[in-house]
Each structure stands twice: as structure tokens, then as C-alpha cells.
Specification:
Chain B: It is a multi-pass membrane protein. Chain B: GO terms for molecular function: antiporter activity; ATP binding; voltage-gated chloride channel activity. Chain B: Pfam families: CBS, Voltage_CLC. Chain B: It is found in: Cell membrane; Endosome membrane; Golgi apparatus membrane; Membrane. The complex is a heterodimer of chains A (199) and B (805). Chain A is mainly alpha-helical and 199 residues long. Among the domains of chain A are: 57 residues; 32 residues. In chain A, a hairpin with an 8-residue loop joins strand 1 and strand 2. In chain A, helix 2 packs antiparallel against helix 5. Chain B is mainly alpha-helical and 805 residues long. Among the domains of chain B are: 158 residues, Clc chloride channel (Orthogonal Bundle), CATH 1.10.3080; 235 residues, Clc chloride channel, CATH 1.10.3080; 155 residues, CBS-domain (Roll). In chain B, the strands form 4 sheets. A 3-stranded mixed sheet of chain B has the order 3-4-5. In chain B, strands 8-9-10 form a 3-stranded mixed sheet. In chain B, strands 1-2 form a two-stranded antiparallel ribbon. In chain B, helix 2 runs antiparallel to helix 8, helix 2 runs parallel beside helix 10 and helix 21 runs antiparallel to helix 22. Chain B is elongated and about 110 Å long. At the A-B interface, helix 1, helix 2, strand 1, strand 2 and strand 3 of A face helix 2, helix 5, helix 7, helix 12 and helix 13 of B.
Chain lengths: 199, 805
């Protein structure tokens, strides 16, 4: 094969946890359309703020015009001052063109809330439900024993125990989840217990 | 599931003098030590090394041609070998170039290989920009959620809720669709009870957000706390921290950053955004073999990703690249400069198209005025610089003292409680003062703002004389009562922010400190600016003002003072120089204010350096004991290599392996009885002439693989590191050839080499270890940890504070 790296270049790495990758992909897919979303008519405006002038009180004018028409003459209507005063009045007014995308905002907030909700549910599951449904594995030691014993250096080959059963999808997912949990446990020990990193 | 009994325990090492970090139970298992382990599952032959993996689907590895999987990878909390990584990349590139002449397919492969870097930068920019947009919009919404909710659609924040409604000129911030909590619950928003209810809801929401943040961090990704920049600096200098830039860390950091910022804590999101961008970079590296397998190339990508992170945080692509160059990166080849700029631009452009703040602005506090300033104003600017330097030094000292207390005493045992208490204190103190109630970014935006005729905030409540207004240019005016109220409220806010940030930075939630420092500086600057403005207005006949500030002219811009103050404080804390000025002038969109910014930044850096040498990130690196060899300091002592090398005079002699006389069993004994990460190979024990250097990890992998796969390798087999092994009688077991894992060009210095040169060599080449010879014979070894300990010793610091390899 001349090009052995090709399939590996784009092989997905969904080893220890599928959900963050899915979330990222989802995020990417959903964020792209809002970025190019066509602007609905209610999402653009020209806003002119005119301060009090002589005996006229201050007022804010909003109008749905394009950027080139966003000036005092097009937006301020009805014009409160007579014709010869219009220029002086308009000099005081400040006009800004603003646009936003309500769809983007809505989509992003909903994505964010759903991710937070999913994480909360997962955390609740791990804390409450998981210990109940998981039967204690006969050849696993409890995790809190890890920090006590130091390993003797050994190069002797030890037959792998969990080798044969990690083949069905469920088993693989469970294996991945166990590995991830151990990893988080390790990180937690480094950061929270031994304070070796991140003060 | 404890893997102690399995063979992976052989990769572990206990407390080591030399190189390995003692993390009991820390797996050096390739499959679990890392989010994205260096060895891919696709290499089926490797699976037998992981105790828990599948067995048996191994392909026969030909020792003479293909390197074993696992050889050339690194363990967690170790330093990479830059020289080896770079030469491996050059080899790979050479091979691809040579093969490209063979067929069109290979040619296409070489072209795609060359473009893979640019494609990767594009993807990093897109992902970083999108995540920054998500963070900005969500944080903006959740911050406003503490005060009320929008009836027109709960996903709108205050500003967007009032977008559609017709507001009057006098009541520009109120609109009927936005209901504060007391209005929602009680039906009206006035009165003492409504105020108390608002207060209560504010504190409750703040507590909920921060509690959720710290629980998520603790439960899912403990590496997601803190700022991230010290650790990224260390990673970019060659250190390996597996999982620090992984998928879960990315997700949790993004989510909890929003929560932490929204809870009203005195922290910012710029530092964590750099971490988020580097996570994106690391994750996307796995799509390309070129970057996945090579740690040095990956660090180039991470430098570019860090630039993209700062670029989206400040809307400053050039500033981002300079920040990456100055603060974060260790080796920054010129090729990376162009690619970082590309990534930063793509990220900024993506963020702009998501448009989180409306009006296509990238940052909330974009400054739009262009008033001129006068040379005499340099005096207050330099005063602000001195204030920034003093505050920076004070903040670093107290924050490090507090973090050290958190590390060593019982305070560190209650991280969740600590976060809750700090949030409660912050929220309770922040609500009464309007300037601390609003989010820090909004505060900075308001302080940077120059008061125009249409501004209705308290800070702009000057005594207006409408008859003398000419157009939009307002003259200096006397301060109205609103300004005086704002002044003392701001002073209180300043005091509160100065003290509470000390306790907030470093907590177990993502926390940055750019925004709080800028806020402190902006408040101080604005106060000084208003003071100078009023001084000029009331005493315009003084000699210093009469020349340039006539009555009726607009000479003093307090917004500019706020900006200069912000730059000064940020410079005092982080000791940034060029990148700070460039970020600030990209924020303002013009070159008018470069001279005041530079004056303030330089003054603050000098003042702060006079008090304490290190910036906040270097101080945290030293606090945590990361093996970071500072590239900016000069080593100026007259020690020599023989003073630093191991073994010392009283130690047993150097453990070496001979080139062709040791058996497998001897080598295994050496490996198990010592904890060194590598061994020199000599011709013979008598001559001690150097052949090369072999790494422990490579030895272990090769020997185990040989025992399994090769026929005839037993404990009494000779290990041979040379090309031509000595002939053996036919009855003896077959020879194990390990020349392929031997590094034939280890760096050596003589024992009389001054340590200045040795430190320089370590810095410039990125070495892990260096052999010391005397009269051509091998005498000892100097490792990076020895160098760091020596530097610490020379600087009278505790040499045992260097914890890691």
C-alpha cells in the first residue's frame, strides 16, 4: 500500500468518551448555519438618538433601513423642526446602524443549556445510579488503594486478564468509560488531593 | 479496576531522584494515561502492551526496519526530546519528498502533507472562533439572568430584549419586556422589599452558577480549573501533561468558564480562552498524522492556537500572535509566525460573523474616540504606570502567598466550600454598588467611554451648558452631582476589586486575570482623569493649563486615562511589553495613543520589576514546581559542569550499559533497580568510551517485545548495540540487536565547561540530558532537573521545590 496513512489521518478517535466528540461535531454543524443565516427583517435597524433641542424633548427614532440610508434625514420622521433648522438638528443627532441575529442567539443559548443539562444528568447518573447497577468486578481492586502501594519493578510478562471480553460494543463502551473514570480520578488526585498541579 | 498486577506496572517508577514524577498509581499505560494516547489502536501489534487491551492481533514487527510502536513516545509528566522530534520530522519529510517522485499518488500525498498545516490552522481558527462566540453570547445572557428575565424570549439578555421596544429618550434602559426578578415575583419593582428580593435573587443565582461550575470541574475534568496559561507555557517548553488539552477538558472548560464569569466573580475569560483554543489545537492535531505523531510539530500548532485564543478574546489578531510569541511559546520558528497570524485572523473573522455583541464588534469594550492628548498629560500617565507597577507587584505577592496557603494547609481540602464562600462574599458586597453589580467587561466599557451628549450614565452627568455646545464636541465641563457619586462608588469598587481578586484567581474554577486587572487600572485611570479634568476646568488659568487648555475646549479625555490605567495594571501583573501595547492599540483602532500606552506600560514594568522579578505566570510556574527553564534570565554564576553533574563524588558510579557484553537479565536488573530515564552505552566498563544513549522506555518496550515475538530470546541472551555483534558459540542463545533504539549522537560537554554555556545549550536545544566527559571518557550526566535545581540553588531558592521531571 503506497498510502498507509490515509485511513488513519481521518480516523475518528473516540476512545474514552463518545459524547464530547459528538457535542463538538454538533456544535460545529449547528454553529455554521447561524453564522450565514439570512437576516430577518426585524434584525436590522438604524437607530438615531436626538437630544433635547430648544423646546423639543429628546427622542429616539428606529427605522428598518439599509446601511447607506442610515442617516438623520431618512430616519427621523416626522421631522420636529422646520426646514431651515433641520441641518442644525441633525448635527446633534447620532445615528448608528445595528444588526443582530436572533436565530444565532437562540440556537446558541439552547445548545448551551442542553449541554449543561446533559452534563448534570450524566453527573447525577454517575453519582446515584451507576454504583447501584454496576456489580463489583471480581478482579478489580477498589480505587482508593492505588495511592498506598508502590509498584515493584517487574518486567515479567503478566497475562492480560481482560483481554478476551472487550469485543462487543457495550463492553467496549464500558471499558472506555472505566478508563475515563480512572483518568478523572487520577487528575482529581493530582489537582485536588496532592495539589501537585494548578495550586 | 486496578492495573497494578499487570505488566504496565513495569513502566512505572517510584520516587526518583532523576526523572520520573512520583505519582502513585499514575498510569504509564499507553491506553489510559492520556486522553489521546500517542499510540493508536490501529497499530494492532501494540495492543499486547496494554494490560487491558485485546490480545493477539499482532503483526510481526520486523525489528530491523519498522520502529516499534511505543518507541519514541513519552510518558506523562516527562519532557520531550526536541532534538529527536525535530530530526524525526525532517526524516519523515525527506522520505515523503523522495517518494513523491515515484507516482502521482505519492506526489499528491506530498502536496497534501505540505498543505495540512494550513488546513489545520483554518480548522483551529474556525473552532476557536465558534467556541469564543458561544462563550460570549452565553456569558452575556447568563450575567443578565441574575437580574431579571426577558419575557419576549428567555434567551435574550437585557440589551437585546430592549432592542425592539420603543424606548423614550429619558428612560433609555428600561423597557416593558425586561422584567427584573422582583417585578416578576411581586409585580412591581420599587420599594425596599423589591430591592431585598432582587438582592436575594442575585446572590442565589451567583451561588448556583459557581456551585455548578466547581462541581462540574471536580466531577468531570479537574484539569479545567485555573487560568491555564502557566501550564500551557510549560507544555510548550516541552513538558507532557496528558489530558490537559483533551476533549473533556475542552468541554468542561468552555461550560464552566461561562458559569464562572456569569456568577459575578472577579475573574476574566481571556486566560481560559487561550486554554480552550489550545485544546482545540490539540484535538484537531489528531486528524493529521504529521502532527499527531510528532510532539515538536504539535507544539508549533499549539503556539498558533494560543495566538488564536488571545485574538478572539480581544479582537486583536496581531496582539494575539505577539502574545503567543512573547508570553506563551518557547520555540517560535518564523514559519509559525505566519501560520499563527493566519489562525488568529480566521478565528477573529469567525467570531465577527457570529457577531456576539452586535455591530460586528469583537470585544465589548471597543473604544471609538480619537481625541488628541497633550504632552503634559504624560505626567499623569506615568503616575498611572507607577500605580500599575505597584499594584502588579502587590497582587503577585499576595496571590502567591494565598495560593501557597491553599496548597499546603487545610484550606486546600475544601475547594467547593471555598468557591461558595468567595462567591457569596463577592455577590453580597457587589450588589449594593452599581459599578460592581454590572459585569466587569461592561464596567470597563463604560469607563473607556468618552462622554458624549447622548450618554445618560451617572459618570457622564456633567453640568451641561447647551448654548455653548458646538456639534458633538463637548468641552470640559464642571462635574455634576452624578459624577461625584460615581467617583466615590468607583473608589469603593476599586478597593473591593483589588482585594477580592487576590482570593479569586487560582480557585478551582476557570479564572483569568486580564479583565480584573484592566478593571482595576481603568477605575484608577478614570478617577485620575476626572480629577485632572476638573482641575483643568476650575483652574484653567494656571500656568500648566493655560497654554493648551482654554475654557470651552475639550482637552482632557478621562476615557483615555482609563485605557492607559488598564494597560498599566495589566502590564504590571503580567509584565507583557510589546503584546500589551499592540493589543491595546488594536482595541482602540488607532495609533494616536501609542505613546501614552507605551509610557505607562514601560513605567509599570520597571516599577514592578524593581519590586519582584517575575510576572504572575512565571510565579505560578515556580509555585507549582513545573520544570520550566526560563529563557529570559541570564545565568551569571561561575560554576562548572562538574559541580552540577551526577554522580557526585560521594555517589556510586554512573550506571552504564556496555555495548555488547550484557545479557537481557543484566539489563532488566539495572532497569528495575534504578529509576533513571536513560542509560549511557559505553564500549566497555574499563574504557568508559561513549557509544550512545538509550532511553528506559524504549529499552523496556524492545525487551518485552523481543521476549514475546522473537525466537530464542531468553534471559541469558546477549544484548548488542553495535552493527556487527561479536560471534558467539552456536550453543548460546540468539543475540538481541537493539541498535535501532540507540541514540548515537548524545550531547556531551566536558567537565570544565562553564555552567553558563551548559544552561544555554539546554535552553537553545531543548535537551533533556547531557553527558559529561573528562579526557574523552564518560564521567557523569546532567539532566534538566539538575540544571533547574542548580539555578534555584544559585538564586537561593529551595532546590527541592522542583517537583517534576
Amino acid at each position: 500500500i503506497l498510502f498507509p496513512q490515509a485511513p488513519r489521518m481521518f480516523a475518528p478517535n473516540s476512545r474514552n468518551s463518545v459524547s464530547p466528540v459528538l457535542l463538538l461535531v454538533l456544535l460545529g454543524c449547528v454553529l455554521c448555519p447561524p453564522a450565514q443565516a439570512s437576516k430577518s427583517s426585524e434584525d436590522i435597524r438604524c437607530k438615531c438618538i436626538c437630544p433635547p433641542y430648544r423646546n423639543i424633548s429628546g427622542h429616539i427614532y428606529n427605522k428598518n433601513v439599509s446601511q447607506k440610508d442610515c442617516n438623520c434625514l431618512h430616519v427621523v420622521e416626522p421631522m420636529p423642526v422646520p426646514g431651515n433648522d433641520v441641518e442644525a438638528y441633525c448635527l446633534l443627532c447620532e445615528c448608528k446602524y445595528e444588526e443582530r441575529s436572533t436565530t444565532t442567539i437562540k440556537v446558541i443559548i439552547i445548545i448551551y443549556l442542553s449541554v449543561v443539562g446533559a452534563l448534570l444528568l450524566y453527573m447525577a447518573f454517575l453519582v446515584l445510579v451507576d454504583p447501584l447497577i454496576r456489580k463489583p468486578d471480581p478482579y478489580t481492586q477498589p480505587l482508593h488503594n492505588e495511592e498506598d502501594s508502590e509498584d515493584a519493578h517487574s518486567l515479567a510478562a503478566v497475562p492480560t486478564l481482560a483481554g478476551a471480553r472487550a469485543n462487543t460494543v457495550l463492553e467496549r463502551v464500558e471499558g472506555a468509560q472505566q478508563r475515563w473514570k480512572r483518568q478523572v480520578q487520577e487528575q482529581r488526585k493530582t489537582v485536588f488531593d496532592r495539589h501537585k498541579m494548578l495550586s | 479496576m486496578d492495573q497494578k498486577g499487570f505488566r504496565r506496572g513495569s513502566f512505572q517508577s517510584a520516587t526518583s531522584d532523576e526523572d520520573m514524577l512520583e505519582i502513585a498509581g499514575a498510569s504509564t499505560d499507553f491506553s489510559m494515561a492520556d486522553d489521546d494516547p500517542p499510540l493508536d489502536r490501529e497499530m494492532g501489534g501494540f495492543s499486547s502492551y496494554n494490560g487491558g487491551g485485546m490480545n493477539g492481533t499482532s503483526t510481526m514487527m520486523d525489528f530491523l526496519e519498522e520502529p516499534l510502536p511505543g518507541v519514541g513516545t513519552y510518558e506523562d509528566f516527562n519532557t520531550i526530546d526536541w532534538v529527536r522530534e525535530k530530526s524525526r520530522d525532517r526524516d519523515r519529510h525527506r522520505e515523503i519528498t523522495n517518494r513523491s517522485k515515484e507516482s502521482t499518488w505519492a506526489l499528491l500525498h506530498s502536496v497534501s502533507d505540505a498543505f495540512s498545516g494550513w488546513l489545520l490552522m483554518l480548522l483551529i481558527g474556525l473552532l476557536a472562533g465558534s467556541l469564543a462566540g458561544l462563550i460570549d453570547i452565553s456569558a452575556h445572557w447568563m450575567t443578565d439572568l441574575k437580574e431579571g428575565v426577558c419575557l419576549a424570549g428567555f434567551w435574550f439578555n437585557h440589551e437585546h430584549c430592549c432592542w425592539k421596544s420603543n424606548t423614550t429618550f429619558t428612560d433609555r434602559d428600561k423597557c416593558p419586556e425586561w422584567k427584573s426578578w422582583s417585578q416578576l415575583i411581586l409585580g412591581h419593582g420599587e420599594g425596599a422589599f423589591a430591592y431585598i428580593l432582587n438582592y436575594f435573587m442575585y446572590v442565589v443565582w451567583a451561588l448556583m452558577f459557581s456551585l455548578l461550575a466547581v462541581l462540574l470541574v471536580k466531577g468531570f475534568a479537574p484539569y479545567a480549573c485555573g487560568s491555564g496559561i502557566p501550564e500551557i507555557k510549560t507544555i510548550l517548553s516541552g513538558f507532557i501533561i496528558r489530558g490537559y488539552l483533551g476533549k473533556w477538558t475542552l468541554v468542561i472548560k468552555t461550560i464552566t468558564l461561562v458559569l464562572a464569569v456569569s456568577s459575578g466573580l472577579s475573574l476574566g475569560k481571556e486566560g481560559p480562552l487561550v486554554h480552550v483554543a489550545c485544546c482545540c489545537g490539540n484535538i484537531l492535531c489528531h486528524l493529521f498524522t504529521k502532527y499527531r505523531k510528532n510532539e515538536a510539530k504539535r507544539r508549533e500548532v499549539l503556539s498558533a492556537a494560543a495566538a488564536a485564543g488571545v485574538s478572539v478574546a480581544f479582537g486583536a489578531p496581531i496582539g494575539g500572535v505577539l502574545f503567543s510569541l512573547e508570553e506563551v511559546s518557547y520555540y517560535f520558528p518564523l514559519k509559525t509566525l505566519w501560520r499563527s497570524f493566519f489562525a488568529a485572523l480566521v478565528a477573529a473573522f469567525t467570531l465577527r460573523s457570529i457577531n456576539p455583541f452586535g455591530n460586528s464588534r469583537l470585544v465589548l469594550f471597543y473604544v471609538e474616540f480619537h481625541m488628541p492628548w497633550h504632552l503634559l498629560e504624560l505626567v499623569p500617565f506615568i503616575l498611572l504606570g507607577i500605580f500599575g507597577g505597584l499594584w502588579g507587584a502587590f497582587f503577585i505577592r499576595s496571590n502567591i502567598a494565598w495560593c501557597r496557603r491553599r496548597k499546603t494547609t487545610r484550606l486546600g481540602k475544601y475547594p467547593v466550600l471555598e468557591v461558595i464562600v468567595v462567591t457569596a462574599i463577592t455577590a453580597i458586597l457587589a450588589f449594593p454598588n452599581e459599578y460592581t453589580r454590572m459585569s466587569t467587561s461592561e464596567l470597563i466599557s463604560e469607563l473607556f467611554n468618552d462622554c458624549g451628549i447622548l450618554d445618560s450614565s451617572k459618570l457622564c452627568e456633567y453640568v451641561n451648558d447647551f448654548n455653548s455646545t458646538k456639534g458633538d464636541d463637548l468641552p470640559d465641563r464642571a462635574a455634576g452631582p452624578g459624577v461625584y457619586t460615581a467617583m466615590w462608588q468607583l473608589a469603593l469598587a476599586l478597593i473591593m476589586k483589588v482585594f477580592i481578586t487576590i482570593f479569586t484567581f487560582g480557585m478551582k474554577v476557570p479564572s483569568g486575570l486580564f479583565i480584573p486587572s484592566m478593571a482595576v487600572g481603568a477605575i484608577a485611570g478614570r478617577l485620575l482623569g476626572v480629577a485632572v479634568e476638573q482641575l483643568a476646568f476650575y483652574h484653567h488659568d494656571w500656568a500648566i493649563f493655560s497654554g493648551w487648555c482654554s475654557p470651552g475646549a475639550d482637552c482632557i479625555t478621562p476615557g483615555l486615562y482609563a485605557m492607559v490605567g488598564a494597560a498599566a495594571c495589566l502590564g504590571g501583573v503580567t509584565r507583557m511589553t510589546v503584546s500589551l501595547v499592540v493589543i491595546m492599540f488594536e482595541l482602540t483602532g488607532g495609533l494616536e495613543y501609542i505613546v501614552p500606552l507605551m509610557a505607562a506600560a514601560m513605567t509599570s514594568k520597571w516599577v514592578a520589576d524593581a519590586i519582584g522579578r517575575e510576572g504572575i505566570y512565571d510565579a505560578h510556574i515556580r509555585l507549582n514546581g513545573y520544570p520550566f527553564l526560563e529563557a529570559k534570565e541570564e545565568f551569571s554564576h561561575k560554576t562548572r559542569a562538574m559541580d552540577v553533574m551526577r554522580p557526585r563524588k560521594s555517589d556510586p558510579p554512573l550506571t552504564v550499559i556496555t555495548q555488547d557484553t550484557m545479557t537481557v537479565e543484566d539489563v532488566e536488573t539495572i532497569i528495575t533497580s534504578t529509576t533513571y530515564s536513560g542509560y549511557p552505552v559505553v564500549v566497555s566498563r574499563a574504557s568508559q568510551r561513549l557509544v550512545g544513549f538509550v532511553l528506559r522506555r524504549d529499552l523496556i518496550i524492545s525487551i518485552e517485545n523481543a521476549r514475546k515475538k522473537q525466537d530464542g530470546i531468553v534471559s541469558t541472551s546477549i544484548i548488542c548495540f553495535t552493527d556487527y555483534c561479536p560471534p558467539l558459540p552456536p550453543s548460546s542463545p540468539s543475540v538481541l540487536k537493539l541498535r535501532s533504539i540507540l541514540d548515537l549522537s548524545p550531547f556531551t560537554v566536558t567537565d570544565e565547561t562553564p555552567m553558563e554555556i551548559v544552561v544555554d545549550i539546554f535552553r537553545k536545544l531543548g535537551l533533556r540530558q547531557c553527558l559529561v566527559t573528562h579526557n574523552g571518557k564518560l564521567l557523569g550526566i546532567i539532566t534538566k532537573k539538575d540544571v533547574l535545581k542548580h539555578i534555584a540553588q544559585m538564586a537561593n531558592q529551595d532546590p527541592d521545590s522542583i517537583l517534576f521531571n
